[in-house]
Structures are given as C-alpha cells and as structure tokens.
Amino acid sequence: MNAPLALLKMRFLTGLQYRAAAAAGVLTQFFFGLVFIMVYVAFYRHAGPAQPMTLEEVAAYIWLQQIFFTFIMLWHSDYELFDLITGGGIAYELCRPWRLYTVWYVKLLAARLSACALRCLPIAAVVLFLPEPYGLSLPASPEAFLLFVAALLAGLLLVIAISMFVYLSVFWTMSPVGSILLIAVAGEFFAGMVIPVPLMPDWMRQIAHLLPFRWTVDFPFRVYTGHIGAQEAIAGIGGQLVWLAILVAAGRWLMGRALRRVVVQGG
Amino acid sequence: MAIFFTAIPGSHQSERGDRLSLIKLEAIGKSFKVAKRPAGFREAVKAFFSREHTIVEALRDISFTVREGEIVGYIGPNGAGKSTTVKIMCGVLVPDAGSCSIMGYTPWKDRVRYVRHIGVVFGQRSQLWWDVPVIDSFELLRDIYAIPPDAYRKNLDRLAEWLDLADLLRTPVRQLSLGQRMRCEIAASLLHEPAILFLDEPTIGLDAESKRAVRQFIRMINRERGVTVILTTHDMHDIEALADRILMIGKGMLLYDGSLSDLRNRYGTRKTIAVEYKGGADAVPPIDAPGVQCLSRSPGRAVYAFDSDRIDITDLINRLSAVGELADVEIGSPPVDELILRLYKEHRV
Q1: Burial classification of residue A68, based on how many CB atoms lie within 10 Å of its CB (0-12 exposed, 13-18 middle, 19 or more buried)
Q2: Are the Cβ atoms of B131 and A99 closer than 8 angstroms?
Q3: For residue range A157-170, what is the model confidence (pLDDT) as tens digits?
Q4: Distance from A214 to chain B by nearest Cα, in Å?
Q5: What is the pTM assigned to this prediction?
Q6: Is position A176 within any domain?
C-alpha cells in the first residue's frame, strides 16, 4: 500500500472511534435543520410567489448541509496538525520521505470522511421520510444525483484545499484561533451556509460568485435539487477543478515558504 | 532493497564521492528571531503594537566531518545548539549559512530523497501513534518507507528480538512505560535500514536498566551493521559507553572535536587515590609529596588527589605503604562530567 493510502486508512479507522461525538452531532444536526426550515417556512408564507428557490429546494438544501456537515464546514479542524506546528512535532513529520502538503491533505481528508461516515446515514434515513415541507426530497433525476455526487466530492477536495491555509497560517501566527474565525465567518457565509446564494441580494451574490467558497456548498446542493441543470453542472464541476488546481498550487507554494522558515518549537 | 542493514558501505558511497566522510558540515550558521518583552501590563500593551526582537545565534560556523561507521557523541549544555545541528542534518531546519553534504545529499534541499537513508529518534517526542498498538505504527512506517514485505518481516523480527519487544508490540503506545516506549522508538527508526542513525537524547528520563539496554543495542547495531550513529546527550555515561569521538558545542560554536581519551589526557591527569590501612584504629600519618594533596583522612583511611604528570604512581604507592600497612588501594579517574565542566570553564560557556 502506498504511503498516503495507508495513512488515509489509519486516520479513517482512528476517526471511526469517535462514536459519542458523532451521536451528539447527529442530534445537533437534526435540531438545526428543523429550526432553519421552520424559519424558511414562515418566511415563504409571507413572501411573494416568485422566489429564486422553492421551499422544497430550500429544505433539501438545508438537509444536505446537515447531512454533509463535516464535508463542508471550514472550521472543522484537526487539532493534531496545529499541535504539530506549535508543539514541534513537525520535526518527525519532516524526517519522512513524503511531501508534507500531500500528507496533511490526506489526514484532513480522512478526518472528514470518517466523521461523515458516522453521521450522514442516520440523518439521511430519517429526513427522507419527514412530511412536507420538512423532508428531504429525492434528487431531481438519476443523472442529477450522479452529478451531485461528483460535485460534492470535488467540493470536499476544495474545502480541504481552502482549510489548509488555516494550518499554513499557524506557521506565522502560532495560533489557529484568528484564522479559523476569519475563514469560518467569511468563507461559510459566501459558501451559502447561512443563506443559500440564490436568496442573497444581487451585489452580494456577485461577490459570492467571484470567490471559491460557493463551489463547496451552494453548487453541489443545487445540483441535487435540479436547481442547476445538467449542462451547467458539468461546466460547474470543471470550474471546481480549476479552483482546486489553483488553491492546491498556492498551498504548496506557501508550504514551501513556511518550511524554509520553520522553527521547531520547544527545542 | 537489501536484506538487512546492508545500506552500510553501499553503492551510493562509491558513486557519491569520498567513501570516508559520510557527513560533511561546513561553516553552518543558524539564527532565530526571539520576541522579547519585559514583564508587566504596560509592556504587554506596548508589545501589541510593536514588538522587539532579538536575534539569537544558535549556531556559528560549525564544521566537522563524520566517517562511516563512527559513533559520535555530540555534547554541550542546554541551548548550546545540539538539537539545532541535528535537525539541520535531518533536513528539518534550513540553516542561514554554510553547506552540509550527507551521503551526497543536501538534507534540506533533497529532503524527501535523503531522509530514506536516515533514522531519527528525538528523545523528547514520539513518532509512534499514541492511541494504537505499536505494531500499527510500525506497519504505517513500512508503508511510508515502502519497505518490501520480507525485508520488513526480517527487520522486525530481529529488532523485536534484540530490543525485547515481543510483548510490547500489541500494546497501545500510551500504556507503555518510558523505557519500553524508547525501545519501540529506536526500533521504529531502524525498520527501513538507515545508514545513519540520529539520536537526540535517547536516554532522557530512562532508568539505569533501560539506559544500559539502549546503549548495548546502539553499540551492537553500530558494530554488527555498520550504522553510523550521531548521538546527543547530557548523560556522560552514554558518552563513556558509546562514543569513539566527541564533539562539544557551546554557545553555538564547536569547542572540541576529538576522542574521549584525548580529552582525558588533556584534562584528566588529576586523579584520586584512596588507601585503606590495616589495623584501622591507629592514625596513620599523612604523606607529603609534590603534586599530592590530601582530600580527607580518617583513622585507617585516606584519600589523596594527585597529578600523574608530577608524581609517578609507583612512587606514590611506595610512599603510602611506607607510612602504614596497606589493605586496599583504589585509583580513580575523574568522571567525564568533570572533564566536560573543565572544558566549559576553559571556553567560558
């Protein structure tokens, strides 16, 4: 087995041990999903008939957010990596014949995969059977579903590439708090975590479209509901991959800079 | 990959130049920026806007070469730059000045290719996965270094036998004692048959028994497999038991490079002699000779310090036996610690 794959497996299996955290997470996700949908139900009751998204689409959007919560949250952090930087454990990481960016990327990927593996099925199993308008509707079509899976996975890779900058910033700041807050507030808002991007005012939507964040949440979930059609979805996945290439290249460059000035903390 | 630890004189040497010097450091320098502020609230507020930094020169003009198959003890007080040097040699840190060539590689430039050939143990950190059994960490290392299955099995069997790991492999790392963990750490650093082993304080915090086991193993791996060992330590018994050669560093500068016996000859001419006389109770008069000084005297026993350059030992013993009937004589060399302290003093470290 090659090194990244072995690491992925190890981290994935380690992550599966956190069952209590996952159970608590599932309950939280139900709660928030229901509250958000209630807010939108009230909102749609008093809004005009022509909205950019139907209530059913919004409900699906919110449940998908909750199901794939650990795929898309930018603040979902691996504190072990922070400790490696601030505690000097990075010395061992650099003594291995591997590229650090790849290894950390794989670790982050495994952590999100294992967290999601524990959470997504129980939530999905319940919300698919909730009564209208609170339930999760089925995907628009089989092909919409396949495109959704592709877009979601590309979005996951993108989320990790973005979150890597938080870890890289710690080489300079020695504390992740500021970077996490910054990226969580700005990034998640423009990703459409708070309000779906189509419901934003025009000027705000234009900003969201210039940034990479919306490709991680807004795009895959609207592919699921068919709000974004097949043609546009395929082009969009291309766009995701372009952003991924740019962000990974930038991250690797920054990692190179960081390692040249690395200080092993604590002697 | 060869069967076991055959990386020793390996082909890379003949291709990659001088067979004798495996490691060559030239004029290595490294400095760190350290933020400083005086204590107090007002200063803390001031530091919020502009911070003062001082540059600490961790290493200044460090040059040495290490030959294949040597065990080199790298010693010096805390903060002298030992670990910094080791981390530069491991490819972890990038120096500000100077050059370093190890097996033909520049560690920080060719890091990924270079680190395959070295094993590293940082005594104060762990390379083992904390929550899983030791064997899982070993298997991950096998995958990381792409060790072929049969070579891995063979290496693991031997290391388990030599370091007595059989009962530890299935235990989670967090449940191991420090001595057990250190044995596992050392095994972990040797699974991929490195040609060079860097040990940064491998015996720190270990009890006498574990220290002895670790030292014996290092000796053996060096003798049997020709692994070159660079060892930093504060424990002078490590140095005495292991190092053919010591490098001493203080305040970032190399102060001494040579064998322990040379150091002894240079500073260790002062010895002690303890004599016991038969018939105890009667006081034996002290002797008086050039270069001899009485340290303590009780009925039946006396301890003298003497300078072996100034007085011949036979002469001294003759004089001692002239004043009373000898029961026992014990001559002691000064402990290495004392030699090192003298070196530090001479260089005002």
Answers
A1: buried
A2: no
A3: 999 999 999 999 99
A4: 35
A5: 0.83
A6: yes
